[in-house]
Amino acid sequence: MSSTSTSIPRSYPFAIANAFTRDPFGGNPATVIFLDPSNTLTQEERLKFSNGLNQPMVVFLTPTPTSANKPGVVSFEVQYFTSDCEIELCGHGTIAATKIILDSATNSPGFGQGTQFPAFCSPETHAIEYTTAKGVVISSRKVVMDEEDWFEIVLPAGKLKKLTDEEGGRVVGILARAMGKEPRVKYIGMGEPPLQHYLLIVLEETENLEQLKFVDIKALEATGFQVHVVTTDSTSGKFSEDYITRMFAPAAGVDEDHVCGSANCTMGPYWAAQKGITELKVRQVSERGGKLRVGVYGDVIKLRGQVRVTSVGQLFL
Questions:
Q1: Fewer CB within 10 A of the terminal residue: the chain, N end or C end?
Q2: What's the pLDDT at 268?
Q3: Handedness of CA 13, 18, 21, 23 (dihedral sign)
Q4: CA distance 43 to 66
Q5: What local confidence, expressed as pLDDT, does residue 67 receive?
Q6: Average pLDDT by stretches of 10, the chain with 317 residues
Q7: Is 267 left (phi over 0), alpha (psi -120 to 50) or beta?
Q8: CB distance 78 to 94 below 8 Å
Q9: 3-state secondary structure string, the chain?
Q10: Rounded CA gap, 140 and 281, in Å?
Q11: 291: β partners
Q12: What pLDDT score does 308 carry?
């Protein structure tokens, strides 16, 4: 008689949630995977998981000890992956993670009736701290706005540097190829570190950003920037928000992002200065679409969104 040994597969709890929406078919999906320090994944395995899941963003969280002088706070190490590569920061993935963690304390209301999911915090938890691979600490919490739950993260406010006429002209030429027509541009600026790979493009509102067709998004790779944030004012009355936006990052494997939170690190301060206000309502006019709230307070922005959990389960390796 021969015996066959079988190894028990490693398992990892996960949840999928749509950020910046309450619609199960709207917003920007993110898969959040919880790791145990004693049962972790290599970088290669994380990338393979992310590629196989084929989600806009996969967030890997590893619980870490929290200082005793921070009652009600839980801490995690966080890494963000697209299906192609690791990135430094993802706003929508972080906000989705916050909803999932806080709801895990009671398995409600996000998970649905009868759903079993591990608890990653206690009912007394009121804040979460994430430490990125670069050592950046992101603070997050739940807030109540208009009698509804929103989830907030605090990010550094980005500073912008206007492109020179020569460099701006080069970018406009590339943008024209991507759009298939000459764009009406009001402003082009690049983010200063740590947002130096962000390019902010402000178009005239008459460009009708929601309906604007990009015939060759891949052409944007020639700008040399990873993230292209395109925005216009919102004064026509069609939308109640203060500004609207779309985001393109073909160099990172994301032709168009459904809803990009971190893009508001550059847009928020820009529009706050233009309008003379600190609290702004934002709409991303991609096909799935999403709504955000942005508060601009000196060196930081408070990025807020609602979240809809759509799936929970276990991944096996």
A1: N
A2: 98
A3: negative
A4: 24
A5: 75
A6: 62 96 96 92 94 94 87 96 89 96 81 78 95 93 93 95 97 98 97 95 96 96 97 91 96 91 96 98 97 97 97 91
A7: alpha
A8: yes
A9: CCCCCCCCCCEEEEEEEEECCCCCCCCEEEEEEECECCECCCHHHHHHHHHHHCCCCEEEEEEECCCCCCCCEEEEEEEEECCCCEECCCHHHHHHHHHHHHHHCCCCCCCCCCCCCCCCCCCCCCEEEEECCCCCEEEEEEEEECCEEEEEEEEECCCEEECCHHHHHHHHHHHHHHHCCCCCEEEEEEECCCCCCEEEEEECHHHCCCCCCCCCHHHHHHHCCCEEEEEEECCCCCCCCCEEEEEEEHHHCEEEECCCCCCHHHHHHHHHHHHCCCEEEEEECCCCCEEEEEEEECCEEEEEECEEEEEEEEEEC
A10: 19
A11: 283
A12: 96
pLDDT at 110: 64
Q: Which amino acid is at 135?
A: G
Number of residues that make up the chain:
317
- The token pair at 46 is 């994380």
Question: In the block, which residue shows the tokens 């052409």?
Answer: 219
- Say if residue 250 is preceded by a cis peptide, omega within 30 of 0: no
Which domains, ranges and CATH numbers included, belong to the chain?
A: 11-153+305-316 (3.10.310.10), 160-298 (3.10.310.10)
Q: What distance in Å separates the CA atoms of residue 21 and residue 27, rounded to the nearest whole number?
A: 5
User: Which one, of 72, 81, 35, 73, lies nearest residue 54 by Cα?
Assistant: 81
Compute the distance between CA of residue 129 and CA of residue 64 in angstroms, rounded to an integer.
10
Whole-model pTM?
A: 0.89
Q: How far apart are CA 12 and CA 240, in angstroms?
A: 41
Beta-bridge mates of residue 187: 202
In single-letter form, the type of residue at position 25 comes to F
What local confidence, expressed as pLDDT, does residue 108 receive? 62
